[in-house]
């Protein structure tokens, strides 16, 4: 844990300086001026006193115990000084100094050596190349912020990989009076990273909302596990940048080509309960919503406004929401509103109390709708008619908010005249937004998070065979695993290697996934023999580990009947493939029975370097990359993960049955995806896998994998 790091009783500032323009001077000044109550030891061999405090030539001359060392020295001095810190018994450090891996190979080499020392002495270390940290409860500002002012104490923690963003948020928090518990700059993350902070902040009694800015995550599974644990107690809201760049990896499957970094992070956040903010504005909009610790038990919203336009905008925003709904008032509520409001006021949702509405009209309306069992939350929109009214309306809303458990959000719209009202609202913890759409977006996220906490919290322990968490009929014994292991080893040749459809089908069959009967023919005579055994008509496909998409070489023939057509098609497919792809290894053709009816979907896997196997589901066939109607989740997936994937694809209504068509067999789809998830967890050497198409029939009639291919590498053999 990081208790000693955030609660030091003594701090040494290595590189403390007498010169006001030096970072070592600014850091020491900020620690002193923040009101820190512990012992402070400036370290500088060339100074006796700095800012009125006795200075020490090195840390060994300090007789007392040092809980935290802050380094602001030239980069080459960090390594010997961190070694001294370890020998001194210091177990917490902040390395402000830059000039390491962000500068190139030489700096990266120095950083690795520092990291080795930190690990050897078990020094919990922030940085290097960071701004530092602030803990308002400890009255500690250990940053080089140009302003010595502290943000007001609060219950919101903010961490960031961007030091500049930390400084901007600090300035913003001071200006807006936004209460923080902690502000932490991660820097290069040689030790303390987002995972360590989530573990600590998730249990920190001084923090109720966790905000973060991330550019990259090193250990995806550890991040997801820590996020789930923290999210069970408090919201984790993150801005993630840098997901639009194409990955620097070769891909050879539909899944690999469709799974970009954005899809990986979006899946990770969704599955682990992390709330994704699109930008900093939304980050702080959501922080306002969650800071009140209010709960929203349902999606039904009442809107009270004194202006028609903003009320319509709010109504439109609710209509576009995937979870919120306009509340339908009870007959009693409508009756009460008609009795107490002037004629001409609409008593249906949204309620327009008219521009001249005084405080009392707002009070009666808000009290009435909040008593309605059909209302779960209220949004109050206000545009001022007089200078005095904003403060009076705000005080009335605050009073009502303290008497109800239902969330009340506000949107006070206007210029300076509404500022007194906003100050009253936000001072009392009632979230206010300058635009009603932003309030609606925050309410939607609040409701989604609370749904996740109630219904979707899950452990991220990998599913293992025989654990009882897979469908009951999944039984994958050790002998079958050994067979798969041997098969994968046999095709590995020191590089990533493709398995053709026949070999891939063998693996799928061992994991209980239905595949068509048939076989691979190396000669025309063998193809005829297989076709006769199966019975005409048959499907014939070129078989090659080097041909990714068979349609690229015109390598598929369907509804083939008769020995002579089989012979001719065998020769045609093989010769065409050799002509179009002379470097490809042509194994022969696969001969399968024709499968009529059903709908084609794709089920795939692409292994991400940080997060592991990424499962894909969507509408299949040759147009999957053009339509990109797919959904992703990170393995291991749970049944509810799979069900939500189904609903995410745009083709879901087609699969569920429209215009009288029967629904597809979603049970077999779920079962198959769970088995695929288990397969790639059990065999980490599987890099990519496509089943395209998987033919799924109507409800209760199952499905079958018609074509599949796999890419493996020879590391991590089980």
Secondary structure: helix percent: 25-40%
Q: Rg to the nearest angstrom?
A: 32 Å
The average pLDDT is: 89
Spatial gap, N to C terminus = 33 Å
Strand content: 15-25%
Counting H and I runs of at least 4 residues, what is the number of helices?
24
Shape: flat
Sheet with most strands: strand arrangement: 9-8-11-10-12-13-14
**Major sheet summary line:** 7 strands, mixed
Which oligomerization state do the chains in this entry correspond to?
Answer: single chain
**Which stretches of 5+ consecutive residues score pLDDT under 50?**
245-259, 458-473
Number of strands: 30
Structural class comes to alpha/beta
Summarize the structure.
By secondary structure, this protein is α/β, with parallel strands linked by helices.
If you had to describe this structure to a student in words, what would you say it looks like?
It is a single chain. It is flat, with a radius of gyration of 32 Å. Strand 8 (132-135) and strand 9 form a beta hairpin. Residues 245-259 and 458-473 have low confidence and may be disordered. The protein has 24 helices and 30 strands. The chain starts with a helix and ends in a 6-residue tail after the last strand. Strands 9-8-11-10-12-13-14 form a 7-stranded mixed beta sheet, sandwiched between helices. Strands 20, 25, 26, 27, 28, 29 and 30 form a 7-stranded antiparallel beta sheet that branches. By secondary structure, it is of the alpha/beta class. The longest helix is centred in the middle third of the chain and has 21 residues, at 436-456.
């Amino acid at each position: 844990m990081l208790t000693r790091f955030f609660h030091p009783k003594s701090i040494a500032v290595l590189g403390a300086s007498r010169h006001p323009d030096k970072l070592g001077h600014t850091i020491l000044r900020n620690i002193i001026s923040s009101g820190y109550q512990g012992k402070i030891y400036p370290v500088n061999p060339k100074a006796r006193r700095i800012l009125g405090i006795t200075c020490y030539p090195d840390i060994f001359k300090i007789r007392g115990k040092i809980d935290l060392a802050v380094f602001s020295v030239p980069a080459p001095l960090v390594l010997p000084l961190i070694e001294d810190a370890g020998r001194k018994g210091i177990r917490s450090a902040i390395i402000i100094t830059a000039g390491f891996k962000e500068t190139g190979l030489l700096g990266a080499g120095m950083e690795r050596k520092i990291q080795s020392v930190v690990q050897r002495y078990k020094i919990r270390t922030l940085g290097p190349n960071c701004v530092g940290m602030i803990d308002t409860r400890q009255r500690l500002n250990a940053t080089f912020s140009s302003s010595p002012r502290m943000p007001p104490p609060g219950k919101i923690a903010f961490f960031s990989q961007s030091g500049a963003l930390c400084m901007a948020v600090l300035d913003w928090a001071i200006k807006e009076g936004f209460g923080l518990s902690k502000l932490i700059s991660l820097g290069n993350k040689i030790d303390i990273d987002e995972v360590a902070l989530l573990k600590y902040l998730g249990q920190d009694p001084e923090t109720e909302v966790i905000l973060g800015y991330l550019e990259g995550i090193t250990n995806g599974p550890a991040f997801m596990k820590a996020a789930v644990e923290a999210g069970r107690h408090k919201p984790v809201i993150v801005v993630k940048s840098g997901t639009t760049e194409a990955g620097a990896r070769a891909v050879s499957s539909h899944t690999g080509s469709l799974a970009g970094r954005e899809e990986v992070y979006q899946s990770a956040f969704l599955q682990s309960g992390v709330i994704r903010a699109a930008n900093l504005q939304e980050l702080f909009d959501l922080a306002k919503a969650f800071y009140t610790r209010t709960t929203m038990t349902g999606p039904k919203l009442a809107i009270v406004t004194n202006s028609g336009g903003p009320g319509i905008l709010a109504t439109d925003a609710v209509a576009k929401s995937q979870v919120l709904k306009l509340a339908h008032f009870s007959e009693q509520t409508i009756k009460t509103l008609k009795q107490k409001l002037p004629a001409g006021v609409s008593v249906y949702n949204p309620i327009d109390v008219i521009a001249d509405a005084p405080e009392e009209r707002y009070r009666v309306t808000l009290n009435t709708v909040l008593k309605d069992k059909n209302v779960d939350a209220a949004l109050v929109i206000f545009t001022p008619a007089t200078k005095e009214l904003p403060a009076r309306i705000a005080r009335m809303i605050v009073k009502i908010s303290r008497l109800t458990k239902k969330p009340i959000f506000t949107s006070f719209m206007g210029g300076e005249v509404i500022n007194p009202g906003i100050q009253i609202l936000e001072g009392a913890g009632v979230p206010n937004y300058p635009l009603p759409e932003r309030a609606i977006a925050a309410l939607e996220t609040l409701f989604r998070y609370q749904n996740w906490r109630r219904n979707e919290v899950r452990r991220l322990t990998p599913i293992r065979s025989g654990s009882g968490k897979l469908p009951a009929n999944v039984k994958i014994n050790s002998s079958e695993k050994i067979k798969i292991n041997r098969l994968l080893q046999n095709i590995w040749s020191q590089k990533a290697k493709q398995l053709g459809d026949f070999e891939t089908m063998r693996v799928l069959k061992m994991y209980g996934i239905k595949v068509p009967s048939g076989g691979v023919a190396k000669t025309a005579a063998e193809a005829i023999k297989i076709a006769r055994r199966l019975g005409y008509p048959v499907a014939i496909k070129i078989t090659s580990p080097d041909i990714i998409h068979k349609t690229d070489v015109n390598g598929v023939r369907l509804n083939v009947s008769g020995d002579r057509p089989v012979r001719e098609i065998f020769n045609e497919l093989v010769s065409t493939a050799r002509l179009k792809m002379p470097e490809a290894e042509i194994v022969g053709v696969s001969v399968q029975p024709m499968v009529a009816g059903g709908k084609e979907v794709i089920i795939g896997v692409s292994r991400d370097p940080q997060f592991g196997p990424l499962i894909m589901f969507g509408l299949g066939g040759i147009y999957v990359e053009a339509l990109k109607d797919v959904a992703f989740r990170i393995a291991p997936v749970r049944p509810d993960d799979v069900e939500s994937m189904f609903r995410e694809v745009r083709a879901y209504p087609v699969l569920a049955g429209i215009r009288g068509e029967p629904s597809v067999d979603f049970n077999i789809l779920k079962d198959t995806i769970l088995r695929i998830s288990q397969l790639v967890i059990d065999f980490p050497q599987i890099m990519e896998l496509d089943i395209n198409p998987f033919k799924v029939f109507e409800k209760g009639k199952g499905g079958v994998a018609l074509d599949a291919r796999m890419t493996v590498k020879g590391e991590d053999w089980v």
